[in-house]
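retry 2 of 3: previous attempt timed out while embedding cobalt (II) ion. Reduced batch size to 1 and resubmitted. Inputs unchanged:
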Amino acid sequence: MIQDVSTKPFADQKPGTSGLRKKVRVFQQPNYAENFIQAVFDVVTGKEGATLVIGGDGRFLNREVIQVAIRMAAANGFARVLVGQGGILSTPAASHVIRRYGALGGLVLSASHNPGGPEEDFGIKYNIANGGPAPEAVTEAIHARTLSIENYRTFAAPDVDIDSPGLRQVGPLTVEVIDPVADYAALMETLFDFSAIRALFAGGFRMRFDAMSAVTGPYAHEILERRLGAPAGTVVNGTPLPDFGHHHPDPNLVHARDLYDLMMGPDAPDFGAASDGDGDRNLIIGRNQYVTPSDSLAVLAANAHLAPGYARGLAGIARSMPTSAAADRVAAALGVPLFETPTGWKFFGNLLDAGMATICGEESAGTGSDHVREKDGLWAVLLWLNILAVRRQPVAQILAEHWARFGRNYYARHDYEAIPTDRADALMAALRSSLPTLPGLDTPAGPVASADDFAYTDPTDASVSARQGVRIGFVDGSRIVFRLSGTGTEGATLRVYLERYVAADGDLSLETAVALAPLVAAAEALAGIAGHTGMDRPSVIT
Ligand code: VG1
Ligand code: CO
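retry 2 succeeded.
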């Protein structure tokens, strides 16, 4: 029986960079999740008879919200829901399932790299029929709807069994519980040379994949250990836990420290990798060689043709604005266009749909291609493995040869976390108002050459996204970008992105911190970070 439940709007349901993310306690308020899901359903057309995909990264509250969403889908006209067994679907797997089964869209339940548990974070993201995150026009419409919502529709029914595969019925809705790994693993087999990678492992190549007790465990066990023959134990922290084992499932040098220490130590295997809460990010570390995500994007783009799925070459490369320009040099060498988009995967969808870009990436450890419409952590790991299987060189040598050809973009991101929102806003406002005065100004990194607030015009539909981050360029080609995070749930996070290019005939073996020291000083001089935030150093450097 369909029930109309009256409700009142919440004022704080504006989706950020990647969906609505809040503390679990916020989501536990009566009607909070229901309001947001109904706002999504009110905005989306074509629900009658359509398929909806539902899955998440297994974090605390995942199972409860899946049941809520199933009942609401039944009351809102959907004919079929595909849900991952146990409520599990990695973000890239959800994207693939949406595309493969012609779904109208999907609800991806995750707060990605944010920690999970009763005191931590939860999130809901809506993906559209192309498998990608809803574009801004849709998220803005959803937000507008949350502000005027008066009721939501649900179906009076008990919880559905989502732990065994098969078909269930909730009123008019068919619920199909699917294997969360099978379709995704089959897709990977079409893109990569599994027999070459199998031969690599059979020859004694060793890796560690840290799933960080998050969603990629089952995927990595199946693909790396079962299908590719990597020894048992290659995958660590391979069981998804609701609180990620109290860890922060962010594959960076702080939160994946164990992996980093192993890879830098005397017993390092050949290759190390990790992924995040929802499986869309990747960390790549060779033996004694960290690979920045920006460099990884460039290396993958330059070598993608070695994998069968990309032997045809690339149509174009897209990167988010704060990502380093290393990929730009590869695009130039390949003679293909390079697109610079705002932060967040939703801006790549149109370029991928239009066939204008094949590979995309972000400095935040997201890389992906046109095989789905999300970034994809395991995909990046498999592309690296395919390249290693063909080139048979250590990661460090591949990187050294890359820099020797293209030059090196020294790069780091400094995050200042949990700043009171008004202070962070004041910093950005002061920086924005200083922009016209900056060109020509002398700084510790030399004179400022350009200063603007990035605005993006989508080349496919001419939609404009303004105020996407302050960019300051220096005479020697170095760059600093300032923006506020749109994924946090506590206060504000200031992200400062630092980049310095050294040509192939320059010094390619500097310590990153040394190479970037003048830019760190310039960032302080230009933005007054310590004065505004009271912090004399970043919380996290990646
Ligand atoms: C961050 C990253 C961005 C990424 C987004 C979602 O956003 O910087 O590159 O697309 O997270 O990734 P922000 O607004 O906090 O800088 V995930 O893996 O959290 O879905
Ligand atoms: Co993620």
